[in-house]
User: Fold this.
Amino acid sequence: MTEPHLEIASDAGTLADVIARRFESRLASIQAERTPRVLLTGGTIANAVYRLLREDAVDWVDVDFWFGDERYVPANLPDRNDGQARDAFLTRVGATRVHSVTDNDCSLSASEAAALYATSLPDEPFDVALFGVGPDGHVASLFPGFPQLAITDTGAAAVFDSPKPPPVRVTLTYPALNRSRAVWFLVSGADKTHAVARALAPAGSVDETPARGVHGLEETCWFLDEAAASQL
Assistant:
């Protein structure tokens, strides 16, 4: 488990630009040797980062993308993380190696969709895994006090009663999330202040703050704006 490193920017816009340039540089460096494996997240700051990514900075066709969680709704609804990522950058840069959770077309239950998605996960660790953090400290769709926090025998699980709408989701579990060489948390805004402070406090529980349970194998970095970092 790596100790967290903090990078703090003055505001959300500056933070998004810092992350975008760092992300491009990291993927280009990995591509000098092989195809990068990336875990994407949803959320406001992540989508701001995605919109800043440049088409010529990386060979985007040669990047494999997965998602840390997904809202289990039909493909045409704007709730889905993969749809937001496609709108923000995947389509624009021509990415083709995108591994999405199947949409809810009523042919599979959420549990079946989670089991299917688990089979798509790479055998090797993710190179870079991006995460947001909710005001309650949740990460992916692992929520405080929920039974999915204790799952150790599969890489993905269904969530049926998310406290944030929509209620049905598919999330990667800790065994999958923690198979990441670099974990980057992307967090902005004063509403995240207490969650960030709890996640980075010397003591605390994963049950209360699930983000405490995710660490990179080689690197754990928290990218914060000053508002989100104000209680550190």
